Amino acid sequence: MSNPSHGATLTINTGALAANWRALSRLAGAAEAAAVIKADGYGLGTEPVARTLKDAGCRTLFVAHLSEAVRARAVAPDLDIYVLNGLPIGSVSTYLTHRLRPVLGSGAEVAEWRDQAPEGTPAALHVDTGMSRLGLRVEEVGDLPTVFRPRLIMSHFVASEEPANPMNARQIAAFERISALFPSSVPSLSNSSGVFLRQHQPIREGLVRPGYALYGGNPTPGAPNPMADVVTLAATILQVRVVTVGETVGYNGAWTAHRPSLIATVSLGYADGYLRSGSASNTTQGGIASVAGQEVPIVGRVSMDLITLDVTDVPGAANLRGEPAIFIGPGLGVDRVASALGTNGYEILTSLGGRYNRVFV
Ligand SMILES: *Cc1c(COP(=O)(O)O)cnc(C)c1O
């Protein structure tokens, strides 16, 4: 469904998103499956993602910022919405107005919330078990359980996508020790990969917080992806040109043709969030696309609005004007794209730019 006013089309399969949530919910067993929709729903759009998950049966959302929570609240009036980045100074009234729940992550935040919010207003308490970013240190919890009853008690895995990492067992043990001090709070530890870790290493928790896997990312790296693809990114081929031996392609002449070549120039660039690390020279590989069902390499630098592909080996390459080049799609999932671009799939998704023709199917 390309649109000539846009250079590229981002198709978001909301059915696959809903199916991924239901699959995670089944895996979570008796625990509730919440959904993490921070960073604009991992780049796919806060509102459509929140609506889709709500319709699938999800009852609890997590975002990073208060502004994201206010947007989610507008389309999900009845869901519980937690804000992971905590309580910015002076924000209690905004939380109360929109019935949002802070994830309190320091003694200062707990004190401010207890001072200003009516007793019993739902909030989460974040205890750090190894990440050293947010959350009270274990020894800071002290006598808090006698005076404060958070609705949710949570911590966050450092490396749950590595099942053999000894950090996992240490974090699970520390978390279960702390959460036992808050018997009236719902314990929550697992992110996407944690949901799969739980299948081998049971975790006492009442709510799981998957994000990445909802959007089609592989929560079990090294094993086949159990999740359905959600995102397809297709950019239009603007023209196919002949490049003779010895001619270079793109800025700084980073790639030189060593055979008579057909180069497809495509309407996609780093301004769309396609990372510049997908650039390729004659000695370093970069990103990949699929044209007419065949995989082709990026050649030369990724520029702001254009990418060049070597389509010499694609049958009928001279006639590809107006055809799509697929940069994310079946067989080219976000994890594979990420490894070609030297990053992780989270960054691929959250970099998706603002000028695509976005189609929700
Ligand atoms: C982002 C985040 C999640 C979700 O993690 P995924 O790996 O995307 O499933 C869960 N909990 C916290 C605290 C997070 O910051």
Radius of gyration: 23 Å
Work out the number of β strands: 19
Distance between the ends? 10 Å
How many distinct helices?
11
Going by CATH, the architecture of the largest domain would be Alpha-Beta Barrel
Major sheet details:
8 strands, mixed
- CATH class label of the largest domain: Alpha Beta
Low-confidence runs of at least 5 consecutive residues: none
The proportion of strand residues reads: 15-25%
How many domain modules?
2
Model description:
There is one protein chain. With 361 residues, the chain is an alpha/beta fold. It has 2 domains: 31-215, Alanine racemase (TIM Barrel, Alpha-Beta Barrel), CATH 3.20.20.10; 231-360, Lyase, Ornithine Decarboxylase, Chain A, domain 1 (Beta Barrel). It has 11 helices and 19 strands. Strands 1, 11, 14, 15, 16, 17, 18 and 19 form an 8-stranded mixed β-sheet that branches. The chain has a 7-stranded parallel β-sheet with strand order 3-4-5-6-7-8-9. Helix 3 packs across helix 4. It is elongated. The relative contact order is 0.14. The mean pLDDT is 97. The chain binds pyridoxal-5'-phosphate.
